[in-house]
């Protein structure tokens, strides 16, 4: 899944509400003011507003992230103001669940397996945005309930100044060198934290051997973190030597964090692996501004917006027909060379996620 498919992005647990205006994003007064009641402009014919609940990673504190650019362009093009609420993937889903009787969000963007979880909880309505026919079948729901808008991959970061080269294996992280210098975000709360568990289960060949390893790793782990994005600055400063993350977010962060390097752990004797962790977007059921939500989803998958995914966001376009050639795209392609990409069984993970997280908590004492 943390996510959020990024210059340093804040993955704070405290939610931030911002409004996109022409050329900039301004702080919104509050969700009641921006969301309105479910009857206000319910078909997009009233208020010129659309509210987005999103996993962190695509918006920049400096205002130069992919969301910052495309939201501003969208507002300029349509006159529709974007109200933005950010948090961890699981956190955004839970907030939407609590608001089901008084829906506030129009669009929900989150990482797997939380987008599947949102669908399972009845939070999404079917809508296939323009351009979604160009998205790979594995990166969208067959019933049209969600579609990836930015592709991304799970990864780890390390401090290039303190370590002469990146670690290579999971087993290497058990060394005393990393005691108190390693941290990963919390599975079940952060999308990227959940991804640690998913990748370990794949690399070690199942739940039990993965948990056995993570139990050992706990001796070096600093402790839980609801935010993945704040681990990168700690790694860049040398407070941590290794942390989890994802390629899009960390690649964007590395532009202002010179000591940040990206790597992919392998099981001893195996190849480095990763899996796709896209930012997937869905139209919220009973959205206050349904038609505006559809227009935003259409725009996020437009060629103009998709061409900016690598250049501005440091990620990978969701549309297979958009093939950027900018410097970031070239560097990202090089980074992924030689890394084996596997596809998790998302149906199994969606069904058993709570059990996997409980087992992780028990094994690690978290």
Structure explained in plain terms:
- With 366 residues, this protein is an alpha/beta fold.
- It is 34% helix and 18% strand.
- It has helices at 31-35, 66-78, 89-98, 114-120, 191-204, 207-217, 231-237, 247-254, 290-300, 303-306, 308-311, 327-336, 346-364, and strands at residues 16-21, 24-27, 49-55, 81-87, 107-110, 124-125, 147-151, 154-159, 182-183, 242-246, 260-263, 273-275, 279-284, 316-317, 340-342.
- Strands 1, 2, 3, 4, 5, 6, 7, 13 and 14 form a nine-stranded mixed beta sheet that branches. A four-stranded mixed beta sheet has the order 9-10-8-11. It has a two-stranded parallel ribbon with strand order 12-15.
- A hairpin with a 2-residue loop joins β1 and β2 (24-27).
- The longest helix is centred in the last third of the chain and has 19 residues, at 346-364.
- The protein starts with 15 loop residues before the first strand and ends with a helix.
- Residues 1-45 have low confidence and may be disordered.
């Amino acid at each position: 899944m943390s996510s959020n498919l990024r210059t340093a992005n804040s993955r704070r647990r405290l939610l931030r509400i911002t409004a996109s205006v022409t050329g900039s994003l301004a702080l919104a007064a509050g969700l009641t003011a921006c969301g309105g009641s479910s009857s206000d402009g319910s078909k997009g014919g009233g208020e010129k507003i659309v509210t987005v609940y999103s996993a962190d990673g695509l918006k920049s504190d400096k205002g130069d992230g992919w969301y910052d650019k495309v939201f501003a362009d969208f507002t300029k093009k349509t006159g529709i103001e974007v109200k933005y609420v950010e948090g961890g993937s699981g956190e955004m889903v839970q907030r939407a669940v609590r608001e089901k009787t008084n829906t506030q969000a129009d669009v929900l963007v989150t990482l797997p397996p939380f987008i599947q979880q949102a669908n399972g909880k009845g939070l999404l309505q079917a809508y296939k945005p323009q351009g979604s026919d160009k998205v790979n079948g594995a990166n969208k729901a067959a019933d049209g309930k969600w579609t990836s808008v930015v592709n991304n991959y799970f990864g780890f970061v390390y401090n290039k100044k303190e370590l002469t080269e990146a670690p290579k294996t999971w087993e290497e992280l058990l060394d005393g060198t990393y005691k108190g210098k390693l941290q990963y975000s919390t599975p079940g709360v952060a999308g990227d934290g959940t991804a640690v568990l998913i990748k370990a289960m794949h690399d070690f060949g199942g739940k039990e051997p993965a948990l056995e390893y993570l139990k050992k790793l706990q001796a070096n782990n600093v402790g839980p973190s609801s935010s993945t994005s704040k681990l990168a600055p700690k790694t860049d400063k040398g407070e941590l030597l290794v942390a989890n993350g994802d390629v899009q977010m960390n690649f964007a962060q590395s532009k202002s964090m010179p000591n940040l390097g990206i790597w992919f752990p392998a099981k001893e004797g195996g190849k480095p692996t990763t899996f796709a962790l896209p930012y997937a977007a869905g139209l919220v059921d009973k959205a206050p501004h349904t038609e505006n939500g559809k227009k935003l989803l259409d725009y996020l998958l437009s060629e103009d917006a998709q061409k900016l995914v690598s250049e501005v966001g440091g990620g990978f376009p969701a549309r297979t027909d958009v093939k950027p050639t900018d410097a970031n795209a070239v560097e990202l392609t090089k980074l992924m060379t030689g890394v084996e990409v596997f596809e998790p069984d998302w149906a199994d993970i969606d069904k058993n996620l709570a059990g996997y997280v409980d087992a992780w908590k028990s094994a690690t004492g978290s």
